[in-house]
Amino acid sequence: MPVLELDNVEKVFPGVKALGGVTLRVEKGEIRALIGPNGSGKTTMIATIMGTYRPDKGTIRFKGEDLGHSPMWDRVKKGLNATNQMAAYVPELSIRRHIALGVMINGFEKQDVERVAEIVDLQDSMDELPSSLSAVGAKKLEIGKALSTRPSFLMLDECFAGLSFEEGEEMVGIIRTVVEEQDVTVLVVDHNLGLVEKVAQFTTVIDRGNIIAEGSFQDIVNDPVVVEAYMG
Amino acid sequence: MSRDFYGWIATLVVLVAVVLVMQGQLSFVITASLFAVFAMSWSFFTSFSGYLNLGHVIFIGLAGYSSAILNYHLGWPMWLCMVLGVVIGTGGGWLYLYPIHRRITGLSFEMVSFLSIVALSNLVVSGLARPVTGGDIGLSPLDGLYSTMPLAVALAVLVCGFGFWYTRYLKSGSGKIVDFARENPGIVRSAGADPHRYTGRLLLLSGLLASIGGVLYVAFTGAAVVSNTFALGLMIRIVVMAIIGGRFSLRGSILGAYLVVFLGMVLMPYVDAFVQFLIIYAIGFVIYFVRPRGLVSVFDGLLERLPWAGRPSHAEKGL
């Protein structure tokens, strides 16, 4: 049974159909990649799944339950979470406090803070301020914040953006750990096809708000429709 | 006992010392303490939630007028009217402001809260409400409180008691969530909580103290009139006091209230009330630009330079 199901989800902004009836199913324990050119609707899709935007049409089900118009924080309680493209943090508050926030709000054990810090390899920077983090550190903090809520489905928006290949590979390692050890299903949204190929078991391509292809990475890159969408 | 506890005990000692030194001017001391209650309760919500609440006097007005109406029209004992006034002021003010704070933020919240007090003050003096509120004359005389030493000391205890409670609250788990809700509510949502739930609690606690201040102020002045409850002028004075003392600081608000009331006392023989306000507002204006964190930041700076003083953490600053 799919853990996340989108049925004919539409989202229209004035003058733009950001999502044109998207249907998607993601199975439990999967690492799914969602790729597509700039402006194809990837981030809108994440925001709609998280409840930031209300779909104009269609339904989103998580673990079989229709999410309806529930607010973002309620979806997080149910086990959904997502990271931001640009790290969101309060510059004056330590990395520890950022990771502890989700643990505190959800009433988890305090040891979760250290456990999450180890997964994202931030255990040595916990008392520093987020502004001291490098690009890859900020991405790790985003994942750490999300993991602190013990999600069962995690969406990573542009998690390889701005990283070197080595840093990207480090992120791939973290994503694999999250899936294998934390029993989390992951949807990776990115442009970096080299790293997407390394991490994803299954790839979905979106263009102009519509899913245009799904399959293994090799199937996708050889699909003429996808090549056309990417190369114009 | 914690550093916070001793800090507030020290503040209480200073306030009681002021009461003892100024025994001949108890009404000024009591007025200063009541304004400290207003300024601290305003500062608690506005500074720590990030919402600039220009409708704070709704709590004061609802509580003050409720107690006055019950005492004046029904002849109920004043202590009972004051208790009920606090309940009505806190509950009514919160039920009015909380949905607004949930729906709108930033300048829109400021405008709506500001317009609310303009509307309410007009409603209170209108012919429609006159049979109940007394219109622009208000309700007086009421069974009031007198300028006594026990009242002055009790108010100092009230101010410091709430100061300690507020400080503890801001350092609790809920207070730590408020730190995020103020700076970036989206972070709280993505951690699985509704940020308004936490800022709403600040509003409730802020309203509780403002309502207590409201019933005490009405009882102390012996009259419920718009000028000492719902008035725009009262709201502006509260904001100016917090700015002068330090609007990001609970103790700063107390300092600002005392300074403004005592400055008024000093100026009274020489200039009329309008010129007094002009001078006080001019001081507030200058301080806003020269020392945005208020005069309390001068003391904080001096204390930090003491060899035995530990540097307070960022979160502790302003408490």
Give an overview in words.
The complex is a heterodimer of chains A (232) and B (319). Chain A is an alpha/beta fold and 232 residues long. Chain A has a domain at 2-83 and 153-231: P-loop containing nucleotide triphosphate hydrolases (Rossmann fold), CATH 3.40.50. Chain A has helices spanning 42-50, 72-78, 95-105, 111-119, 135-147, 165-182, 193-199, 217-221, 224-231; strands spanning 2-13, 16-27, 31-35, 57-62, 65-66, 80-83, 153-157, 185-189, 202-207, 210-215. In chain A, the strands form 2 sheets. Chain A has a 6-stranded mixed sheet with strand order 6-7-8-3-9-10, sandwiched between helices. A 4-stranded antiparallel sheet of chain A has the order 2-1-4-5, with helices on one face. In chain A, a hairpin with a 2-residue loop joins β9 (202-207) and β10. The mean pLDDT of chain A is 92. Chain B has 319 residues and is mainly alpha-helical. Chain B has one domain (3-231). Chain B is 74% helix and 0% strand. Chain B is built from 14 helices and no strands. The longest helix of chain B is centred in the middle third of the chain and has 27 residues, at 195-221. The radius of gyration of chain B is 19 Å and the shape is globular. Chain B starts with a helix and ends in a 14-residue tail after the last helix. Residues 311-319 of chain B have low confidence and may be disordered.
